[in-house]
Amino acid sequence: MSKRNQLIVPAILIIAAIAVLPGCGAEVSGQADSTAVPIHVMKLGQPASAGLSGKVIPDQDIKIVSKVAGKVASVNVQEGSKVKQGDVLVQLETGDLNQQVKQAESSLLAAQAKLVDTKAGARSQEIQGLQSAVSAAQGAYQQATAAMEQAKAGLELATSTYNRLRNSYDSNSGVTQEDLDKGTLDYEKAKASSEQAQGAQKAAEAQLQGAEAKLQLAKIGPTDNTISALQADVDRLNAGLELANSGLNNATITAPIDGLIVKKSISIGELAQPGVQVLSLVNMDQVQVELSVSDSQITQVKAGIKVDVAIQNLPNQTFKGEIFFVSPVANANSNTFPVKVKVDNKDGLLFAGMVAEVKLDAAQESRLEIPKSAIIKKDQKEYLYTADDNTAHLVEVKTEEKNQDWSYVLPNDKLKANEQIVVNPTDKIAEGTKVKAE
């Protein structure tokens, strides 16, 4: 080998050694690669952010509708009007409704008077009148009876005369056909008179019985069934009056709460329809912030927790709030949980639709999530391995159940966000073991 070649070979070896060193750490090249334990690692994420984003909505948002149909007579508010509870907002025409109330009142008064009179029973004058009617019916019955008896006697005489003439005529004893015909006619007249008298007597008897029954009922008084029927009629008419008054009252639309009119959907002369919105009223003295919280953060959120609320359009201002509702049921489409926060707005700085950020406290911010496959349980304690500079370090942790695959872990001085941890550690790994990520 020439002298020139003797100088070149060592130089090449030095360059190769330098090229290998950066991939091996501080150990001699080749030694770390042969002893390092292959591992799977993952990087810890940032702690669950306390900045939950949501929107401001009114604490009370009422859609005011008409309960009855009617033509609008007046609208006393405009968009932006501040109103107090009970203020008249819209007035419908009431002419027909007033007539319905008057008609219902008249019918009810008549039914009530009839019920009172029936309960009180017949007056003495009515009793006397009924007694007079009975006496008159008795006299008419007696006259009809006498007339019937007289007609009955006349029929008996006419029957006897007719029989005698008939027998004589049949025996040729000198009775002519003319005599027989006259006797027959007298008999028919007497029979008709008797039947007529009997009918008159029966009619007079029926009138007498009717008069006596009316007198008896007047003396006894009304039955329970009669009173019940009249009372039911009064109740029915009273319900009709209440319904008419309700319709009249509903023609006046008033403010159910203190607040601000934000939308007007009707004008004078238009026809209001039942159930159709005419105004929109909100109360912004207190507002709500609606949040959608992910399943990884929902366990941090509890009703009653005090929070700070920051508004995107109001920099350098923080509002105090309180969580008052945490839904136990996730939204079907987004798999997030509805959460609501109350915020005082006496100063009127917050408007519906503003974007808000709700900040939880620092203790809740500090929770990290790790897979359960990274946790080692030993001596009733929990550990995991970090991979720092190709070296495994055993770190004791405290965890809290999240679900069947993940746990929350509180960081300590040796465990922070963005740090690499070993997943599915094997028995080959111990404190200080050289490792390499695959």
Automatic annotation (TrEMBL):
A single cellular component GO annotation: efflux pump complex
Domain YknX-like C-terminal permuted SH3-like: 368-436
The UniProt record lists the keyword DNA-binding: no
A GO term, aspect molecular function: efflux transmembrane transporter activity
Pfam families: Beta-barrel_RND_2, BSH_RND, YknX_C
Keywords: Coiled coil
Signal peptide: none
Keyword Coiled coil: yes
Domain Multidrug resistance protein MdtA-like barrel-sandwich hybrid per the UniProt entry, residue ranges: 62-277
Coiled-coil regions listed in the entry: 187-214
Gene3D superfamilies registered for this protein in UniProt: 2.40.30.170, 2.40.420.20, 2.40.50.100, Helix hairpin bin (1.10.287.470)
InterPro entries reported for this sequence: Beta-barrel_RND_2, MdtA-like_BSH, RND_pump_MFP, YknX-like_C
Residue ranges occupied by any CusB-like beta-barrel domain in the UniProt entry: 289-363
Protein family per UniProt: Belongs to the membrane fusion protein (MFP) (TC 8.A.1) family.
UniProt name for this protein: Efflux transporter periplasmic adaptor subunit
